[in-house]
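Tutorial, part two.
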Amino acid sequence: MKSGLGTKLAISYVLSVVIVFVITAVFIDQAARSGFIEELTTSTQAQSRAVAVALRTGPVDRSVSDLAEALGVRITVIDASGVVEADSAADPATMTNHNDRPEIIEARADGMGTSTRLSETVGEDLLYVALRDGNRVVRLAVPLEDVQERMFPVRLRALLGAVVVSIAGLAVVVVVSRRTQHLMRALTESVTQIAAGRSAEELLVGGRLESSPEVSELSEAVRSMSDQIRARVGELETEQDLRDRVLEALDEGVLLLRGTLVDYANPAARRMLGSSLSPDGRLRNQALSKMAAERAAPTRMTVGTRLVEVVVEPSADQSVVVLRDVTDRVRTESIRRDFVADASHELKTPVAAIRAAAETIQTAAEDGDMAAVIHFSRQVEASAYRLGRIVSDLLDLSRLEARDLDVGPTDLAALALEEVAAAELDHVSVTVDLDPLAIQGSPPDVALALRNLLSNAARHTDAGGTVHVAVKTERDQAVVSVTDSGSGIPARDLPRIFERFYRVDTARSRHTGATGLGLAIVRHVAERHGGRVSVESELGVGSTFRISFPLATSELGIDQVDPDLS
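Running the prediction step on this input gives:
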């Protein structure tokens, strides 16, 4: 368990006090002991002088014993050669030569010598004071027990003072540490709430956080840091939001992969991959995972039903995978290639016929065969007419693809009536059933689609047949339908009749001048208007073509169209 700030401060204080006290006590003890010893030395020196004077007048042996007992000291007399003449505590005959004792050496040199040491004779610490008196030395030895006794109260007072100071200081430390703990706890709570999103201005102003200069400075630093973090977080959120919006707006899919784990996938990537992205955020497509891991070169692969171009860019321990759906582009390129090939083939046929007829006319004219000239001139005219139709339809398709759609409220019934009146339908019986409906459309484009439907009905309906044109509302859509009683369309051909240059009966189409582009134009017009085209047909009975358009938001002020046009 971690210790609190107050505990740490108290422990630190106690350790500091103990260390300071020990060092101080050592110095005080040494100083007091030195003072006591110095005082004892001074008094002993005075006694040594008195003893030296006393020993000059009487027997040395008896005088040493009497004086030692009277003064409470040990007295030793050493002659010039270092031999002990007399000693108050031991038999001189058993004692060794004393000229090597430090106090004796000092006394013989300076007149007075002192030292403290453990006595080998009596086995206790003694203070030795030696006085030179002529050729001999008088030495007094005083036990240091007195010094120890005098040191005890000094040491006791020092200890009691240290305890009192420690307790008082510890109390102060506890009070200060608790106050500091409260301040730090308040600051910690404030920082925690700031991290949770609350404003620093609400939490760090006034109160205890402003009562201490140091804490006030710290709270001000925290406030500044909070403002900087908030500003930076705002910038990051703005950048992230911009990045997300850009990535979400891309048609390309963007994946951030780490192995098979998907760290990020934009909406386009999720649409492309579909079930290949598991609910737990992993990529199930093994081929794509392998490409990302191997940093493969850009390539194309099939994902579901779509053809996708994959580009892998390494990024640290991850891979950025860009997915481009090229299905429509590849299909468009294929359609364009097929269209160019088909258009070239369709144009080649009338051009070849014109060239052949022109050469024949030239030969017939040189031979004077006017009947042949007239016959082949008519073939040239028919081929030129067919070539003109093809070029005209190609130009219509090109215009529809290149020009922006200019729509507005359009009277569908009126357009249908105009096209019926202009169509070459003299060999059939025509009826109409037209409700006044308005659509949002381009009148020239809608008229072109109706024209092609009527032309198609006229080509495939024999003389005496019928063509019925209707404009009705079906399921919130305006629907124009053209029904004929012509030859009909085989079921196998129905899915393809709106393709460019597709013909059900090639011989009949060429005989009637059909280009194979009329129904493709109809489909293109319908799709550009947000509608669709459909067909129902029965072989030998007839066909019905329908184009549906979204209704306009407002009705046009038009009258009911007269259906009697038969």
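The first helix runs from residue 5 to 55. In part three we will examine how such features are distributed along the chain.
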